[in-house]
Fold this protein.
Amino acid sequence: MPARRVDTSRLLAAVDAQRAATGNPPWSGPVTAGALGAACVAAVLAAVDAGGIPEREALRWAVVHLLDHLARRVPGRAVEVRVPPFAAIQCVPGPRHTRGTPPNVVETDPVTWILLATGRLPWASAVADGRVRASGPRADISGYLPLSD
């Protein structure tokens, strides 16, 4: 799956807004999609750790960055991972789905996805407490988490 095209100026603005919201200086690192995506993830996690609510654009870019990472790490079309309202991807090798509701779906909210993808929340706990809804025989993606760069 090809990576999404990213407007780095919008991504940088999202990183800087989230960093400012948590009292941190503007981003001074590389202005590449990968570096800024990782910076968004770090900035959103800092907001969550501080008990704050992440900035919407930073949260969106962090979700997109981590979903794209999963799609590259585990290519395929057997499982659809949905993180409304921001993005969805297909991943995991296996039977391809082409129409209607896929048989293997994982759905969660943005903050839960970031916590899962970074290893801060165990898959089993998120499923048990209802923060992740996984249906279908291939929907358990715990073997691919956490994601690492």
Notes: The CA atoms of residues 132 and 139 lie 11 Å apart. The mean pLDDT is 93. The longest helix spans residues 56-73. The chain is about 40% helix and 10% strand.
